[in-house]
């Protein structure tokens, strides 16, 4: 029996424009119909484990809860990190939470954004790791390399220990010549960032090598607040925590580190070229999603929106073409690591495309900004059955709601309305209002905003069932 700890933070900027800071890659269905977070949890089926403990940041909390709920895996409260402090503190929060009632489970630490194609081999490696972790070993999983990769850190193995090897050293990302030497030696593995150990052993090693991290995390977890499906830790205490990875803080220093080789079709999907590698391809080597027609097109990744427009290509090779509702990105497949430079430029220019999609998810549903101009904006809003937007008002904008399908229960000042298809209401500036879907099917409506300022921060909330007041 072990406790999966799934770390679901990270921004995934190298997969822009699909992955954005408000909707990073772990929440996207990149290699299957499920998101990568969902696949991380689902691949543990067949193993003897406790309900997964997921750690994420504040901004993505509702998306995490919704995706876990969809696969019936929201059985434990999600731990919220108020700020990012790297993997060593995140795992410390999980270990402290896991031992709070005197228990001491084995922790299987997983990143939420990996692809594993051979699940049987993955579960077999977990079985090996459990036996070692029960002996107080600090286990990491080393990916058996398939080529000389310069984008990963490496683990050099030492002497054999049962079904694994002692860790000789952790090595930073090498150049190509050094990576080739590592591959040929057979003594090096890619560093997967996955671990297994007793919760108590991790805390003991952290106390030995990074006591400041442990103390800050103890203070943070010692003052938690329950909030719907989440556990909020003390923000001030966690902000004071040093920023460090588990590799640097513990694994490189402990004498208990062992590495279990893992040959299971692992890929961290850290770039568009990596996504091309893990997807099925047609006879011309093209990996395609969405509506695509290609003429004399070879070895390309074409990622269009399933609901979007057709992508057509003629006479191209080795390209990545990504089409979203508000951006199109075309890159040479061997230059996709530089996509992050585009993201940095967007961020420097203050453009919203680095952070948000045109379609934005909220705990009550989603909205799609379908048109905008000077002093107006048009949104298509979808409200889930039984969901309700906050009771709110705006200082700078008026809103006109037109119901397309479903039923809307509307509070408009001192009036309460029940609107159905083709009915509408107008909400003047400064009027307190709310929107609820009392029905059994999604509510679709068009919202037309008009006013001098249309930013999302012009919302004064008076009541909210999702804790955002």
Approximately how much helix is present in the residues?
Answer: 10-25%
> Strand order of the main beta sheet, please?
20-21-22-29-24-27
Q: Can you tell me the number of structural domains?
A: 3
- Which residues form runs of ≥5 with pLDDT under 50? none
Cα-atom radius of gyration: 24 Å
Number of discrete helical segments: 11
Explain what this protein looks like in three dimensions:
22% of the residues lie in helices and 34% in strands. It folds into three domains: 2-267, Spore Coat Polysaccharide Biosynthesis Protein SpsA, Chain A, CATH 3.90.550; 272-338, no CATH class; 359-463, Sandwich (Jelly Rolls). The strands form seven sheets. A six-stranded antiparallel beta sheet has the order 20-21-22-29-24-27, with no helix packed on it. A five-stranded mixed β-barrel has the order 6-9-7-8-12. It has eleven helices and 30 strands. The two termini are 40 Å apart.
């Amino acid at each position: 029996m072990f406790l999966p700890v799934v770390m679901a933070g990270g921004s995934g900027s190298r997969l822009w424009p699909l992955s954005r800071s408000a909707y990073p890659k772990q929440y996207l269905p990149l290699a299957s119909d499920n998101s990568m977070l969902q696949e991380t949890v689902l691949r543990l089926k067949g193993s003897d484990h406790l309900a997964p403990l997921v750690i994420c940041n504040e901004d993505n909390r509702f998306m995490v809860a919704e995706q876990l709920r969809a696969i019936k895996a929201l059985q434990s409260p999600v731990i919220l990190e108020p700020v990012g402090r790297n993997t060593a503190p995140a795992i410390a929060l999980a270990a402290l939470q896991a031992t709070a009632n005197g228990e001491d489970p084995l922790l299987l630490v997983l990143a939420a954004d990996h692809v594993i194609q051979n699940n049987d081999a993955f579960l077999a490696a977990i079985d090996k790791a459990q036996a070692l972790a029960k002996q107080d070993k600090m286990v990491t999983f080393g990916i058996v390399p398939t080529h000389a990769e310069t984008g990963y850190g490496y683990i050099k193995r030492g002497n054999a220990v049962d079904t694994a090897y002692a860790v000789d050293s952790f090595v930073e990302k090498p150049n190509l010549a050094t990576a080739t030497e590592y591959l040929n030696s057979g003594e090096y593995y890619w560093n997967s960032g996955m671990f297994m150990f007793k919760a108590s052993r991790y805390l003991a090693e952290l106390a030995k090598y990074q006591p400041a991290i442990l103390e800050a995390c103890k203070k943070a977890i010692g003052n938690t607040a329950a909030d719907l499906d989440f556990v909020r830790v003390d923000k001030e205490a966690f902000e004071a925590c040093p920023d460090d990875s588990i590799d640097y803080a513990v694994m490189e220093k402990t004498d208990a580190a062992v590495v279990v080789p893992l040959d299971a079709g692992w890929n961290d999907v850290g770039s568009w070229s990596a996504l091309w590698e893990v997807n099925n391809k047609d006879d011309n080597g093209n990996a395609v999603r969405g509506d695509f027609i290609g003429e004399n097109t070879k070895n390309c990744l074409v990622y269009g929106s399933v609901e979007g427009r057709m992508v057509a290509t003629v006479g191209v090779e080795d390209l990545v073409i990504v089409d979203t509702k508000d951006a199109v990105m075309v890159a040479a497949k061997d230059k996709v690591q530089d996509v992050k430079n585009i993201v940095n430029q967007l961020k420097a220019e203050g453009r919203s495309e680095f952070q948000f999609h045109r379609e934005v998810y909220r705990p009550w549903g989603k909205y799609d900004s379908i048109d905008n101009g000077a002093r107006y904006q048009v949104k298509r809003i979808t409200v889930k059955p039984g969901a309700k937007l906050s009771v709110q008002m705006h200082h700078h904008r008026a809103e006109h709601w037109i119901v397309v399908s479903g039923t809307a229960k509307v509070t408009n000042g001192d009036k309460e309305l029940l609107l159905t298809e083709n009915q509408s209401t107008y909400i003047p500036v400064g009027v307190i209002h709310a929107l609820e879907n009392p029905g059994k099917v999604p509510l679709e409506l068009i919202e037309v905003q008009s006013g001098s300022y249309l930013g999302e921060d012009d919302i004064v909330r008076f009541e909210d069932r999702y804790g955002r007041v």
